[in-house]
Amino acid sequence: MAAAISESRPFDVILVDDSSRLSRDTKDALTIFERLNFAGIRLIAVSQGIDSQDEQAQVLVTVHGWWTASTSRNLLRRRIEGWRALF
Q1: Taking the model in full, what pTM does it have?
Q2: What angle do CA 78, 79, 80 make, to 5 degrees?
């Protein structure tokens, strides 16, 4: 993040396969999106079709951020239940 917001940033675009690679928390995903946007860095999440230059990007980041956070919590819960069943 420091390189992205520095004056002599070495890149203009961050390309990820999925937005979950940036964060698995909705608030963090939006914060990262907003900071990169403010710094003029374009963010593209390929598999979700999110491009920060699109006007619906913030909505998509929010929805996918929520989905990723929810899925992550559910996986953790199932993992804990599985471990409890073993013992």
Answers
A1: 0.71
A2: 90
CA pair distance 11, 61, nearest whole angstrom? 21
- d(CA 79, CA 60) in angstroms, rounded, equals 28
Q: How far is CA 86 from the centre of its chain?
A: 34
φ/ψ bin of 40: left (φ > 0), alpha (ψ from -120 to 50), beta (otherwise): left
The backbone region for 15, taken as left when phi is positive above 0, alpha when psi lies in -120 to 50, beta otherwise, is: beta
- pLDDT value for 66: 83
Q: How far apart are CA 31 and CA 39, in angstroms?
A: 12
Q: Helices 57-86 and 26-39: crossing angle, nearest 10°?
A: 150
**What pLDDT is recorded for position 46?**
93
Q: Give DSSP secondary structure letters for 27-58.
A: HHHHHHHHHHHHHT-EEEEGGGTEETTSTTHH
The percentage of the chain sitting over the pLDDT mark of 90, rounded to a whole number, equals 20
